[in-house]
C-alpha cells in the first residue's frame, strides 16, 4: 500500500528528478552508439525543462496510470492536490457546484423503486436479441466493456450494453470467482483473441481484442477508459455511490459521456500518443510560440488559482503554461484532448466545464474555461482553475489574449501551421524511410511525419500503429526491456531503438539494406535536431 | 532473491464436460486430478471455472479454442486433445520477496513464464500418454474392457508418475520445437545404416518399422515425424539416460556373461531381455501406439544398443515374444551392428567441431523435417545445460512467437539491456537463431557475423 | 518370370556335345586316322594314301592322293596349308608342297633328325614354315623353304626326353625327362628361336619300376584366362582302391619365365579321367561314373598360402545324351541312334575336343549355362561364376531377376552380389577414364581387388542394365514397393561405396517409388543426406510433388541452391509462390556477388501487380525506383525496360490518394543534407 503513496510523491517530484536524467544523458549518449547505429551524440528535442510529467519507461507509465487510483486506501493516504492549491490561497470548501454535469442529490436517493424496475426491464430485454449471435458484432476488432462489481452493465463499445447482461454476468462471475481464491484474473487467450480484465475500484473493465496490441497496452487503454469515467465523476463520487448501493446502475450518472468513451477508444486506435505516453506539438517558429506563450503569461499571470493554460490545435499542443511546481500528466492532457476533440459544442460557444484530471487529483473537479480562439482560428484554449466561480475573469482574459495574438500575427502563424499537411519522410529526403515516431523521453513529447503511401488508408494506418505497438511492447517488456529491435517483416522493415534520451520507431521499405537504414536514421536525427525548436516545446513556462 | 524462483505445478486435470448429464453429477466429469489430495468440492469448482472460461471464450470466437489464462499468481494452460476432452495445467508463477521503501512484498514474475513453452509441455504430456496408453478414444473403445473406468485408471497410472518428471523450470524453446537432432553423416555411411535397417525388416517380418540413433542423434527413422518426435523425446530424455545410469553401476560385469550369442559383439537389449541367456524370460516390453494420422496401431518397442548406436524395432504386437525371437535378433543384430557402429563413429570423428565459448551460439530448426541443431544447449536432455542466460532463451521464444506470424521470410535483430545480441532469421520455413555477446558491436558488425555463420552452417540449403 | 522358362527345359545336363560333329571314316585295317590338334584337322589315310587322304577340319574338307611309302606315323599341314609333313620313320620327316591346285606336289623332300641315333617322338609346326622335331635326345627347330624344297636347321637343344606336349595357343612345349619322367622342362617357341623356362619337378608318386611317374596322358596344356597352364592329373593311391582319390594340379606359367603350382582341384573320385577346357573352365570327365565336373580357378577357393584348393562348381553330371544321325535303309531317310558317351574309344584333345575314332566323330564340348544356373545353389557363387563366362550377360540378368522374386529373403545376398558387379563396373570405368584422359578415378579400395588383366574376362553389368532389366521391371508390381526401395538403396549404396556416380534415372526411381508408397519422410531423409544427387530435373520433379508433400518445395529450393547455377530458377520458383520480396532480395544478393545476369524489372513488377496487394506492389516499385536512382540518378525507368504500365498502375494505386506528394504546400520544409 505504502508504495502507492510513494508513487504519488514521485509523480509530483518527477519534474525535478528529470534534471538529473537530462544531465546524465549527455554522458550516456556516447555509450548508446553501441546500440548499433552510427549516430552522433545528438538527442533532438531534449530539454531540462518540461511541463509534462515524464516517466522513464512504459511499464512505469502504465503502473503510474493505474497506481494513482487503483486502491481504495488512496483517499485516506493522500491529500487532494486541488485542496493543496486552494489551501495555499484561501479556504474554500470544495463542494460540487450546480454546474457539475450530474445532480448528486438525485444520486443520493438511489433506492428508487422504479429505478429498480428499469434495470430489471433491461435484464429482461437483454435475453431476446443476443449480440453474441451476430457475426458482424463478433467480428469487431476490439470490444470494450465496463460493468460494476455486481455485474451491472455500464458500457459496451459496439452495442447497447443492456443487451449484454448475461455475458457481463459471466465476466463478473469469472472475476469474482478468481478473487475468491485471493488471486486476480488478468487475461485469457484464445486463438487470435485476447480477453483482458482490469478491476478498478468498484468497476470491472474488459477488453476483447483481435488486434496485435499486447496485454499491457490493452490494460493501459482500459485504464484510460476508467480515467475518462473518473474525469466526469471523480474517484470519491464513484466509490461513494457504490458504497451506498452495490448494484447501482452507473449509466444514469454517465448519460451523455458515453460518446467521450467511444471517442477516446477510436482516438486510441489511431493515435500513438497514448501508448507513447507523450504529446505532439504543433510545429511553430520558436519566436511565434514564445510570443503566444508570453501573451498568455502576461494576461493570466495575475489571475489566482489558475493552474493550467493549454492551447491546442489539431489535437497538437501549441503551448502550455502552468502554475509553479505543478505538472500535468500526459494521461490527463490526453483526456483533455479527447474532451476537446469530441465536443463540437465548444466550437459554437465558450463554455465553463468541470473536469477531473485523475492523475492530477482523482478526487476533485477542476473548472475549465474552454473556447476556440476565433472563427478564423480553430485553436482551442483551455484555462483550468480550482476556482469554481471565475468564469468571467477567464472569459475576459481569453478576449485579451485573442486580441494580442491577432495583433502579433500569431493567429496567422497558428493557422498556417494548422493548414499545412505535415511533412513526410519522403519530402525530408529519406526515400527508404516510410514513417517514424520520435519520442523525446525528457519532455514526453513526440514527433511523427505525415503518412505517405502506402499508408493511405485507415486500415493501413491502423496496421502500422499496431506494428509500432508490438515494437513498443517488446522494447518495454517489463522483465526483458530491450535496447534495440531491427526487424525485416513481410511488408516493412522496422527499427525500434531506445536510448537514455529518446525512443525511436522507424518504418522502412521492406527491402532496405541495413547500412541504408542506419544511414537514413542518422540523417533523420540530424534533421530533427535542426528542426527541434519548431517541432518541440523546449521550455516550460509558468505564471 | 537468493535461490532462483521456480515455476511450480499447482493443478493438472483431465475432464470431459459431457460426462455430467445433470446437476450434482459434476464429479463424473473428472477423469484425472492432480494433486489428488485436494477435496472433491474444490476439484469440481476449479473444473467448473475452466469450463466457464472455455465457454466464455468460445462465445466470442467460435471455433477458436481457449489456449491459456493469466491470473496474477498462476498461468492456466488449456488443451483439447480430443473432442470434449480437456486437459488443464495450472502452474504457479515464480515469486520473490522484494523490498520497496522498507516494506516487503511478494512479486509475481509473470513474464518469466512462457505460455508457449507451457502449451508445448502440456501437449507433450498428452502425446506421451497417447504413445504408451493409446488415445482416450482407443482406450474407451477397447474391445475387451474399454470404459471410462479404464481410462481413469490408465490416466492415473500414467500421470501419477509422469507429472513428477516434468521439468517446468528447464523447459525452453526446444520444447516448443520438439525437434530431432540428426547426425551429420556422409552419404555412404548413411546408406550403410539405412540398408542395414532395411535388411533387418526384410529378415524379420514381425518388425514393422525401425529407427537408428547414434548417441543422442537420429540417423534414420522409419516412423513419421509426428511419431518419431515423441519416441525420440522418450528415448533421449527418459529411457537411454536411465539405461546408461544402470550400465554405469552394473557396468563392470562382462558383457552379457560368457554366452555364444554375445561373445563376439557388444549388442544388448535396452528393452526386452536384459541378457540373452537369462532364465527369467523376455523382460517386459513397452507397447507403443502410433500412426494416429492414418490407422492407429500398437506395436512393441524393442530397443537394442551396441556401443553408441541404438536401434528401435517396432514389432508387430501379434508376435509371441519367445526367447528364441530375441536370440535370433541378437545373433543377427549384434555382430553387424557392432561393425556398423565403428564405421559411423569413424565418420563422426571427422565432423566434430569444438566451438569456442566466445564464438556466437546458434539454434537451428526446420519445421518440415523437425531437424534442429543447437550450440546453445550442451545436450538435449533438458537439464538446464545451456550456454546462455534464461533471458536470452525467453527472447528467442518471443522472436519465435512473432516470426510464426510471418509468411515467407524475415529477420529480427535484438539487443538486450545486458548487451546480448539475439538474431532470429526465418527463411524457406527454417528458423535460425544466433546469440552474440559483444558489447561494442554495431548492427552491421552483428549482421556480418550472422552472415558468416550462415555461410558456415547453412551453405547447403536455400536460406537467404 | 524369365527364370521360370529356364526351369521348363527340364533336364539339367550342363555339358553337351556340339550339334553337328565332324564325321570321318572310322579306323579300319586299311584306313589310318590322324588328328592334328594345331589345325584341328582329321586325316583319314586310306591304304597309306594311295587310295586317298581325306582331311576334315573346322573349315576344310579336302582330299588328295599320295603314293604309299610305308605306314604313316604322323601327318600334319603347316599352319598356312602350303606344306604337308609326313612322318613314316622315327628318324626323319618328309615334306611335300601342297599346291594351290589342291593337289600334292610330285616331289617329296625330307629332313632327318640331327641327333645321333635319336628317334623322333613327334613334330609340330610352329610359326610360319618352321617345324619343331622332338626326339628322345632333345628338340630341333627347322626352317622349311617350299620354293627351294630345302630345310634349314635353326636351333636345337639336347635333353633326354620321355614325351612331350605342345600347346598351339601358347607355343609352349612341355618336355618330360629324367628317369621317372618327373623332371619338367618347358620351352617357349618363338619364330626362329627356343626359350627355356625354369625347370621344375613334379613330385613322384610311388610307381612300379620302369613306369613313368608322370605319364603323357595325364598332362594337358591349356590357356586359362590368358594364362598358360599345365594341367596334370595326379592319382593318389589310397590305402584301398576305394579311398584312392585323384587331384588335378594346375601349374601356371608366369611371363613365360617361371612355372608354379597354383591350384589344386579336388575330384573326390578315382579311375580314368580326361580333361577338357571350355570357356576358361577345366572340365574333368570321369569314365567310371560317366560324369563330368567343372572347375573355375578364378572362383575363390581355400588357400594354404601357396596353392588354392578348388572343388567342382557343381555336382558331377553326365554329358547330355547325344543321338547320332545315321543314314537309314534308303538314301533319303535318316535315323537317330543314341551314341555311347564316355566310351573307351573316346580320345580327348585340347582344348575342347572329343573324338570317337570308332564312330568317326569329332565333337566340341559345350557348356549349357542355363542348366548350370539350376545346379549352382549358392547365389553369390553363381553370379560370380556367370560373370566369368563368355556372353552370359543375358543369363546373368535372368538370374538376378529371379533373385528379385525371392525377396525379402534374397536381400541378404544382395549387398555382396551388387558389390561384385560394381567392383567390375568400377574398374571398367577406370579403364575408360584412363584411356580417355589418363587421369585415374579417385582411388577406391574396393576396386583394387579386380586387377585389370583378368578384367576382360569379367562380365560388365552397369547401372543402365540393372535399371532397364531389373529395377524398372518392378513397376509391374512384382513385389511390395517397400522391397523395391530396399533393393534400389542397396544398389545405390554399392555404387556409392565403389565411388560410381549414380545416374539420375536411378534417383528418379527412388523418388517416385518412395512417393508412390507415400514414404515422404523417408524420402526427406535420403535427400537430407544427399543420397540423391542434385540436378535441375530432380529439382523440378520435387517441385511437382509439392502438393503431395509440402516439404518437397523446400528440398527443391535447397537443391537449386546447391547447384549454384540455378539463380534464375530459384527466383522463378519464389515468384511463382508469390514470395516476391524474398525473390527480390535474393535477386539483389545474387547481383551483388555478380552471379546473375540482369533479370527484367517487369518480371517482378508484374508479379507484384498480380499479387493484388497494393503494399507489396508499392514495395517492389519503390525498390526499382531506388535502383534507378543508383543507376542513372532518377527514379524514372529507362525506355528499354517498358515499365510504363506499372508506373501508371502505381499512380492509379497511390498518387491521387497520397497527400504527401503535393509537396508545394511544404515548400519551406527543409530536407536533410544528402
UniProtKB/TrEMBL annotation, chain A:
Residues 304-403 form the FUZ/MON1/HPS1 second Longin domain. One of its GO terms (biological process) is endosome to lysosome transport via multivesicular body sorting pathway. Signal peptide: none annotated. InterPro entries: FUZ/MON1/HPS1_longin_1, FUZ/MON1/HPS1_longin_2, FUZ/MON1/HPS1_longin_3, Mon1. Residues 142-264 form the FUZ/MON1/HPS1 first Longin domain. One of its GO terms (cellular component) is Mon1-Ccz1 complex. Residues 433-532 form the FUZ/MON1/HPS1 third Longin domain. It comes from the Eukaryota. Plays an important role in membrane trafficking through the secretory apparatus. Belongs to the MON1/SAND family. This is Vacuolar fusion protein MON1 homolog. It comes from Cephus cinctus. The gene is LOC107265891.
From TrEMBL, chain B:
One of its GO terms (cellular component) is Mon1-Ccz1 complex. InterPro entries: Ccz1 (IPR013176), CCZ1/INTU/HSP4_longin_1 (IPR043987), CCZ1/INTU/HSP4_longin_3 (IPR043989), CCZ1/INTU_longin_2 (IPR043988). Residues 207-334 form the CCZ1/INTU second Longin domain. It comes from the Eukaryota. GO terms for biological process: vesicle-mediated transport. PANTHER family: VACUOLAR FUSION PROTEIN CCZ1 HOMOLOG-RELATED (PTHR13056). Residues 357-453 form the CCZ1/INTU/HPS4 third Longin domain. It holds the Pfam family Intu_longin_3. Belongs to the CCZ1 family. Residues 9-134 form the CCZ1/INTU/HSP4 first Longin domain. The gene is LOC107268006. This is Vacuolar fusion protein CCZ1 homolog isoform X1.
Automatic annotation (TrEMBL), chain C:
Pfam families: RMC1_C, RMC1_N. Signal peptide: none annotated. Residues 389-639 form the Mic1 domain. One of its GO terms (biological process) is regulation of autophagy. GO terms for cellular component: late endosome membrane; lysosomal membrane; Mon1-Ccz1 complex. Residues 33-151 form the Regulator of MON1-CCZ1 complex N-terminal domain. This is Regulator of MON1-CCZ1 complex isoform X1. It comes from Cephus cinctus. The gene is LOC107264110.
Amino acid at each position: 500500500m505504502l508504495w502507492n503513496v510513494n508513487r504519488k510523491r514521485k509523480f509530483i517530484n518527477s519534474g525535478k528528478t528529470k534534471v538529473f536524467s537530462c544531465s546524465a544523458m549527455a554522458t550516456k549518449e556516447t555509450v548508446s552508439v553501441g546500440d548499433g547505429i552510427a549516430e552522433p551524440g545528438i538527442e533532438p528535442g531534449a530539454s531540462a525543462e518540461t511541463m509534462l510529467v515524464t516517466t522513464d519507461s512504459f511499464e512505469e507509465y502504465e503502473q503510474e496510470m493505474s497506481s494513482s487510483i487503483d486502491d481504495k486506501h488512496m483517499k485516506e493516504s493522500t491529500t487532494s492536490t486541488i485542496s493543496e492549491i486552494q489551501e495555499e490561497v484561501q479556504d474554500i470548501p470544495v463542494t460540487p457546484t450546480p454546474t457539475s454535469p450530474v445532480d448528486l442529490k438525485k444520486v443520493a436517493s438511489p433506492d428508487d423503486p422504479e429505478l429498480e424496475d428499469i434495470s430489471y426491464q433491461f435484464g429482461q430485454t437483454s435475453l431476446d436479441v443476443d449480440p453474441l449471435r451476430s457475426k458482424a458484432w463478433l467480428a469487431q476488432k476490439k470490444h470494450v466493456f465496463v460493468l460494476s462489481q455486481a455485474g451491472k452493465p455500464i458500457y459496451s463499445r459496439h452495442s447497447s450494453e443492456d443487451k449484454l447482461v448475461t455475458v457481463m454476468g459471466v465476466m463478473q462471475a469469472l472475476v469474482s470467482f478468481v478473487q475468491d481464491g485471493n488471486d486476480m484474473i488478468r487475461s485469457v487467450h484464445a486463438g487470435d483473441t485476447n480477453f483482458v480484465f482490469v478491476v478498478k475500484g468498484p468497476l470491472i473493465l474488459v477488453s476483447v481484442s483481435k488486434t496485435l496490441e499486447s496485454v499491457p497496452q490493452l490494460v493501459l487503454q482500459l485504464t484510460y477508459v476508467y480515467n475518462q469515467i473518473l474525469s466526469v465523476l471523480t474517484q470519491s463520487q464513484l466509490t461513494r455511490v457504490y458504497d451506498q448501493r452495490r448494484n447501482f446502475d452507473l449509466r444514469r450518472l454517465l448519460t451523455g459521456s458515453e460518446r467521450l468513451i467511444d471517442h477516446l477508444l477510436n482516438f486510441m486506435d489511431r493515435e500513438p500518443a497514448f501508448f507513447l505516453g507523450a504529446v505532439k506539438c504543433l510545429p511553430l517558429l520558436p519566436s511565434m510560440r514564445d510570443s503566444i506563450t508570453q501573451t498568455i503569461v502576461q494576461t493570466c499571470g495575475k489571475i489566482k488559482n489558475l493552474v493550467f493554460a493549454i492551447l491546442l490545435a489539431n489535437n497538437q499542443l501549441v503551448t502550455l503554461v502552468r502554475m509553479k511546481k505543478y505538472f500535468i500528466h500526459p494521461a490527463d492532457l490526453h483526456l483533455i484532448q479527447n474532451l476537446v476533440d469530441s465536443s463540437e459544442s465548444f466550437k459554437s460557444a465558450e463554455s465553463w466545464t468541470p473536469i477531473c484530471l485523475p492523475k492530477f487529483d482523482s478526487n476533485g473537479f477542476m473548472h475549465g474555461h474552454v473556447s476556440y480562439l476565433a472563427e478564423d482560428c480553430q485553436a482551442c484554449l483551455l484555462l483550468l482553475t480550482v476556482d469554481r466561480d471565475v468564469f468571467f475573469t477567464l472569459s475576459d482574459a481569453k478576449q485579451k489574449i485573442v486580441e494580442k495574438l491577432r495583433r502579433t500575427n500569431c493567429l496567422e502563424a497558428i493557422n498556417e501551421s494548422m493548414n499545412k499537411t505535415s511533412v513526410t519522410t519522403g519530402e525530408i529526403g529519406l526515400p527508404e524511410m516510410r514513417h517514424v515516431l520520435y519520442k523525446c523521453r525528457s519532455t514526453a513529447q513526440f514527433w511523427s511525419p505525415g503518412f505517405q503511401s502506402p499508408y493511405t488508408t485507415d486500415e493501413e494506418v491502423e496496421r502500422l500503429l499496431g506494428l509500432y505497438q508490438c515494437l513498443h511492447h517488446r522494447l518495454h517488456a517489463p522483465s526483458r526491456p530491450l535496447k534495440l529491435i531491427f526487424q525485416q517483416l513481410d511488408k516493412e522493415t522496422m527499427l525500434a531503438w531506445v536510448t537514455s534520451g529518446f525512443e525511436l520507431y522507424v518504418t522502412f521499405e521492406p527491402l532496405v539494406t541495413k547500412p541504408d537504414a542506419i544511414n537514413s536514421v542518422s540523417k533523420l536525427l540530424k534533421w530533427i535536431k535542426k528542426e527541434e525548436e519548431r517541432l518541440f516545446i523546449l521550455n516550460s513556462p509558468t505564471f | 532473491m537468493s535461490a532462483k524462483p521456480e515455476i511450480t505445478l499447482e493443478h493438472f486435470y483431465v475432464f470431459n464436460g459431457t460426462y455430467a448429464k445433470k446437476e450434482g453429477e459434476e464429479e463424473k466429469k473428472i477423469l484425472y486430478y492432480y494433486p489428488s489430495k485436494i477435496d472433491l468440492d474444490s476439484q469440481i469448482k476449479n473444473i467448473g471455472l475452466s469450463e466457464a472460461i472455455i465457454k466464455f471464450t468460445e462465445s466470442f470466437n467460435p471455433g477458436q479454442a481457449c489456449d491459456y489464462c493469466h491470473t496474477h499468481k498462476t498461468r492456466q494452460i488449456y488443451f483439447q486433445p480430443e473432442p470434449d476432452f480437456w486437459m488443464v495445467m495450472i502452474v504457479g508463477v515464480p515469486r520473490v520477496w522484494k523490498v520497496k521503501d522498507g516494506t516487503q512484498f511478494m512479486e509475481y514474475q509473470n513474464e518469466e513464464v512462457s505460455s508457449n513453452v507451457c502449451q508445448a509441455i502440456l501437449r507433450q504430456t498428452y502425446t506421451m500418454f497417447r504413445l504408451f496408453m493409446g488415445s482416450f478414444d482407443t482406450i474407451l473403445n477397447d474391445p475387451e474392457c474399454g470404459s471410462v473406468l479404464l481410462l481413469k485408471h490408465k490416466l492415473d497410472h500414467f500421470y501419477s508418475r509422469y507429472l513428477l518428471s516434468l521439468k517446468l523450470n528447464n523447459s525452453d524453446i526446444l520444447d516448443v520445437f520438439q525437434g530431432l537432432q540428426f547426425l551429420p553423416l556422409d552419404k555412404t555411411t548413411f546408406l550403410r545404416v539405412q540398408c542395414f535397417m532395411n535388411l533387418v525388416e526384410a529378415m524379420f517380418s514381425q518388425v514393422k518399422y525401425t529407427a537408428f540413433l547414434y548417441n543422442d542423434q537420429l540417423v534414420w527413422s522409419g516412423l513419421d515425424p509426428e511419431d518419431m518426435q515423441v519416441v525420440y523425446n522418450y528415448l533421449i530424455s527418459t529411457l537411454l539416460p536411465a539405461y546408461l545410469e544402470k550400465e554405469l553401476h552394473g557396468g563392470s560385469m562382462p558383457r552379457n556373461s560368457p554366452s555364444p550369442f554375445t561373445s563376439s559383439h557388444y549388442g544388448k537389449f535396452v528393452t526386452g531381455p536384459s541378457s540373452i541367456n537369462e532364465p527369467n524370460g523376455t523382460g517386459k516390453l513397452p507397447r507403443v501406439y502410433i500412426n494416429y494420422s492414418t490407422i492407429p496401431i500398437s506395436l512393441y518397442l524393442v530397443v537394442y544398443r551396441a556401443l553408441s548406436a541404438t536401434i528401435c524395432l517396432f514389432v508387430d504386437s501379434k508376435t509371441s515374444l519367445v526367447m528364441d525371437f530375441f536370440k535370433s535378433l541378437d545373433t543377427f543384430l549384434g555382430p553387424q551392428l557392432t561393425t556398423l557402429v565403428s564405421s559411423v563413429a569413424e565418420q563422426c570423428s571427422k565432423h566434430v567441431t569444438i566451438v569456442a565459448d566466445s564464438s556466437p551460439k546458434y539454434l537451428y530448426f526446420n519445421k518440415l523435417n523437425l531437424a534442429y541443431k543447437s550450440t546453445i544447449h550442451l545436450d538435449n536432455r533438458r537439464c538446464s545445460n545451456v550456454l546462455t542466460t534464461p533471458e536470452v532463451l525467453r527472447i528467442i521464444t518471443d522472436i519465435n512467437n512473432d516470426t510464426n506470424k510471418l509468411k515467407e521470410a524475415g529477420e529480427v535483430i535484438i539487443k538486450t539491456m545486458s548487451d546480448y545480441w539475439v538474431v532470429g532469421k526465418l527463411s524457406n520455413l527454417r528458423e535460425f537463431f544466433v546469440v552474440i555477446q559483444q558489447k561494442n558491436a554495431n548492427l552491421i558488425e552483428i549482421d556480418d557475423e550472422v552472415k558468416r555463420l550462415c555461410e558456415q552452417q547453412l551453405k547447403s540449403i536455400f536460406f537467404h | 518370370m524369365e527364370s521360370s522358362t529356364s526351369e521348363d527345359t527340364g533336364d539339367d545336363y550342363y555339358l553337351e556335345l556340339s550339334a553337328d560333329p565332324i564325321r570321318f571314316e572310322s579306323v579300319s585295317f586299311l584306313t589310318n586316322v590322324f588328328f592334328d590338334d594345331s589345325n584341328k584337322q582329321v586325316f583319314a589315310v586310306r591304304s597309306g594314301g594311295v587310295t586317298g587322304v581325306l582331311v576334315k577340319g573346322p573349315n576344310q574338307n579336302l582330299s588328295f592322293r599320295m603314293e604309299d611309302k610305308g605306314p604313316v606315323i604322323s601327318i600334319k599341314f603347316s599352319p598356312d596349308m602350303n606344306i604337308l609333313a609326313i612322318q613314316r620313320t622315327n628318324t626323319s620327316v618328309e615334306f611335300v608342297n601342297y599346291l594351290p591346285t589342291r593337289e600334292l606336289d610330285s616331289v617329296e623332300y625330307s629332313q632327318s633328325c640331327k641327333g645321333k641315333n635319336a628317334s623322333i617322338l613327334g613334330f609340330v609346326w610352329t610359326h610360319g614354315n618352321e617345324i619343331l622335331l622332338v626326339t628322345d635326345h632333345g628338340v630341333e627347330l627347322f626352317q622349311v623353304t617350299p620354293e627351294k624344297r630345302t630345310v634349314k636347321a635353326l636351333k636345337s637343344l639336347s635333353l633326354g626326353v620321355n614325351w612331350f606336349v605342345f600347346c598351339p595357343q601358347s607355343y609352349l612345349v612341355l618336355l618330360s625327362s629324367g628317369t621317372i619322367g618327373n623332371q619338367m622342362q618347358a620351352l617357349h617357341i618363338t619364330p626362329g628361336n627356343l626359350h627355356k623356362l625354369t625347370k621344375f619337378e613334379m613330385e613322384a608318386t610311388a610307381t612300379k619300376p620302369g613306369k613313368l611317374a608322370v605319364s603323357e596322358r595325364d598332362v594337358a596344356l591349356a590357356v586359362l584366362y590368358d594364362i598358360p597352364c599345365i594341367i596334370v592329373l595326379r592319382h593318389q593311391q589310397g590305402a584301398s582302391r576305394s579311398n584312392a582319390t585323384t587331384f588335378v594340379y594346375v601349374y601356371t606359367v608366369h611371363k613365360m619365365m617361371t612355372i608354379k603350382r597354383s591350384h589344386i582341384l579336388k575330384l573326390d573320385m578315382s579311375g580314368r579321367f580326361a580333361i577338357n577346357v571350355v570357356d576358361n573352365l577345366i572340365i574333368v570327365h570321369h569314365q567310371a561314373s560317366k560324369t563330368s565336373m567343372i572347375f573355375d580357378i578364378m572362383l575363390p577357393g581355400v588357400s594354404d598360402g601357396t596353392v588354392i584348393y578348388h572343388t567342382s562348381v557343381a555336382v558331377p553330371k553326365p554329358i547330355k545324351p547325344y543321338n547320332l544321325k545315321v543314314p537309314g535303309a534308303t538314301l533319303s531317310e535318316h535315323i537317330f541312334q543314341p551314341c555311347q558317351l564316355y566310351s573307351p574309344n573316346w580320345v580327348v584333345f585340347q582344348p575342347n575336343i572329343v573324338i570317337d575314332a570308332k564312330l568317326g566323330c569329332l565333337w566340341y564340348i559345350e557348356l549349357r549355362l542355363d542348366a548350370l544356373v539350376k545346379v549352382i545353389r549358392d547365389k553369390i557363387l553363381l553370379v560370380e561364376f556367370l560373370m566369368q563366362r563368355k556372353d552370359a550377360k543375358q543369363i546373368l540378368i535372368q538370374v538376378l531377376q529371379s533373385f528379385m522374386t525371392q525377396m525379402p529373403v534374397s536381400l541378404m545376398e544382395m549387398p555382396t552380389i551388387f558389390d561384385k558387379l560394381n567392383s567390375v563396373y568400377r574398374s571398367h570405368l577406370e579403364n575408360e577414364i584412363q584411356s580417355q584422359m589418363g587421369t585415374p578415378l579417385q582411388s577406391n579400395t574396393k576396386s583394387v581387388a579386380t586387377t585389370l588383366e583378368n578384367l576382360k574376362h569379367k562380365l560388365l553389368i552397369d547401372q543402365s542394365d540393372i535399371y532397364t532389366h531389373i529395377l524398372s521391371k518392378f513397376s509391374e508390381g512384382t513385389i511390395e514397393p517397400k522391397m523395391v526401395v530396399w533393393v534400389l538403396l542397396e544398389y545405390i549404396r554399392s555404387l556409392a561405396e565403389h565411388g560410381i556416380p549414380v545416374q539420375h534415372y536411378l534417383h528418379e526411381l527412388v523418388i517416385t517409388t518412395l512417393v508412390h508408397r507415400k514414404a515422404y519422410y523417408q524420402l526427406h531423409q535420403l535427400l537430407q543426406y544427399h543420397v540423391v544427387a542434385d540436378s535441375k530435373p530432380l529439382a523440378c520433379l520435387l517441385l511437382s510433388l509439392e502438393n503431395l508433400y509440402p516439404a518437397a518445395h523446400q528440398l527443391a529450393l535447397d537443391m537449386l541452391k546447391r547447384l549454384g547455377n540455378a539463380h534464375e530458377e530459384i527466383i522463378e520458383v519464389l515468384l511463382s509462390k508469390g514470395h516476391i520480396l524474398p525473390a527480390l532480395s535474393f535477386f539483389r544478393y545474387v547481383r551483388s556477388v555478380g552471379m546473375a545476369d540482369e533479370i527484367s524489372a517487369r518480371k517482378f513488377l508484374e508479379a507484384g501487380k498480380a499479387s493484388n496487394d497494393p503494399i507489396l506492389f508499392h514495395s517492389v516499385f519503390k525498390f526499382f525506383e531506388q535502383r534507378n536512382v543508383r543507376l542513372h540518378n532518377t527514379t524514372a525507368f529507362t525506355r528499354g525496360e517498358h515499365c510504363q504500365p506499372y508506373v501508371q498502375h502505381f499512380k492509379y494505386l497511390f498518387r491521387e490518394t497520397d497527400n504527401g506528394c503535393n509537396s508545394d504546400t511544404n515548400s519551406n520544409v527543409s530536407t536533410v543534407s544528402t
